[in-house]
Amino acid sequence: xxxxxxxxxxxxxGDEAGLTGGLDPGNRKAFPWGKENKDxxxxxxxxxxxxxxxxxxxxxxxSIINTESSEVFGYKRANEEEEFFxxxxxxxxxxxxxxxxxxxxxxxxxxxxxxxxxxxxxxISLPPCGAVVLRQNKKLCENDHKRSCGVxxxxxxxxxxxxxxxxxxxxxxFIQELKNAGQSYWQILPLNPIDEYDSPxxxxxxxxxxxxxxxxxxxxxxxLLSENELKKSEEKAEIYLQxxxxxxxxxxxxxxxxxxxxxxNKHEDFLKFCKEQAHWLWDFCKFEALKSHYGGTQxxxxxxxxxxxxxxLPEALKEEADFQCFCQYIxxxxxxxxHCFAGECGVQIxxxxxxxxxxxxxxVWANKSLxxxxxxxxxxxxxxxxxxxxxEEGQIWNNPLYDWRKMEKDGFSWWLNRLEQAFSRYDLVxxxxxxxxxxxxxxxxxxxxxxxxxxFGPGLxxxxxxxxxxxxxxxLAEDLGDITIQVKNLLSGCGFPGTDVFQFSYPExxxxxxxxxxxxxxxYSGTHDNQTLLGFLSEHPVLMREKELSAGDVIxxxxxxxAPVVIFPLQDLLGLDDRARMNVPGKAExxxxxxxxxxxxxxxxxxxxxxxxxxANRI
Length: 619
Known about the structure:
Elements: H1 38-53, H2 56-59, E1 61-65, E2 72-78, E3 83-89, E4 96-101, E5 106-108, E6 114-115, E7 121-126, E8 131-136, E9 148-152, H3 169-180, E10 185-187, H4 216-221, H5 227-243, H6 246-262, H7 268-276, H8 281-293, H9 318-344, E11 348-353, H10 362-366, E12 381-385, E13 395-400, H11 404-409, H12 413-425, E14 428-431, E15 439-444, E16 453-456, H13 460-470, E17 475-477, H14 485-494, E18 498-501, H15 502-509, E19 510-511, E20 514-515, E21 521-524, H16 533-538, H17 541-545, H18 551-560, E22 565-569, H19 570-573, H20 603-615
Parallel strand pairs: 9-10, 9-22, 10-11, 11-14, 14-17, 18-21, 21-22
Antiparallel strand pairs: 1-2, 2-3, 3-8, 4-7, 5-6, 5-8, 12-13, 12-15, 15-16, 19-20
Helix pairs in contact: 3-20, 5-6, 8-9, 12-13
């Protein structure tokens, strides 16, 4: 109640931890560090987040609401944009009802429950000592996705002569098969530069593209390579693949790109690209040139003058920076060709934005003030998650944390630039680790994940700024893990579809009459972090034995559900076991390597998938 009334709330020492004391002089004991009452602490955190997220509770108008029951106290907080209703039942013995007049549905911020309005009003049932904080269910965005289906598969999984998928004919052939299979969506993983373990979620730049995805064949079509050069390189690539010499293969591609660069004329389109991407491009190219000069070491270990992005680049490194600029132009040119081809095939592409960026990357180097760093440029606090489904000890991701206060002062310009680029590159954008926008896990540097704590993110403010700048926000939210009421409130306020994963939710949603899909969510059989469906079922024999479910049965159940959009990892549609798993969270090595041949996803297979999808009325 304090957090929704006018004035300044007052929390007496220890109340938030459930601390109790006796008479003076022992009125208050020492704070119970490490032994706080978690339920009470979470209740306080939830109440504080209401006041932080919704400014109306700080400076909005206040008026009493007359109720039919003397046991119910009600009041309204309102500003120019919206109204909130607060009702409290003071009776410890009996439940009470109250009627509220409203022109739209009401959403309870304490329970994440939606109350439907009929004939201009709705009735709320309050349990003994119960309360509701009701917000008119107005959303930043309305996402009306038709009944459809899609496939999750990263570009690197499409096999090619170059050891991984590239932005050329093989990828277009895959898109054509998606069309043949009746798919409306193709979801990919981030396209940014990868780390030494090939993770697309640990990138050196939130804006740059992974140039290893550049297709040499497309460079031939542009007249930047000769057929003889390409043929000789393909022969070498075959040898390197047989030897599993990935570093030699990477260097081979770089030599091809260098030849193409030497023949490239900086025409008008290139200069336009450089101008449009000026907010990140040259900083990234300078960074890559310096990183190469220093043998790949972290920028925190470079000479002092080169730790400053404002320092002029040495003359000897300018050509390398210029080459990096060329590579980024080619990458995005080839990506645009892929994106356009997908559009012509009626396939929308769902891109992916990692929440965090790499500590040793160009984003932090060029924008130090936007991150929580120590005096040497390393993370003072680091990202991660507490113990959860994937890890009993929690995870430390080692990404630096954003300084959200500073970001808010300049209107979240860095994040708006990031979203603007994503909205221009994809049809829909998946926001990874969505809960981080509401609260994020902060781990003191050098400590274990269990020593961390939750801190507030930017909340709705960031998305209100994005809405004001871009209008529609074509966003999907990854809201997996330990999702609190506060995260649900943020998701509801934004109106973004959430995420429903069969492998996580089947115990509560798999019923006798089918799968009960989560409301306003994209449904997945699994994600890139999960087992394949076949691998999962093999380790859950109860599902296979008592429910008599095969992988094909589960696919059919999900397709027949009420979820507007259902997405399957390609491995599940191909019926593959865990040898085809893409990633095991918490494990650095031997991930992100699964590949398939286009022949595996043949016309015959596409026709089979099309038939199943059509029967589920998703075409």
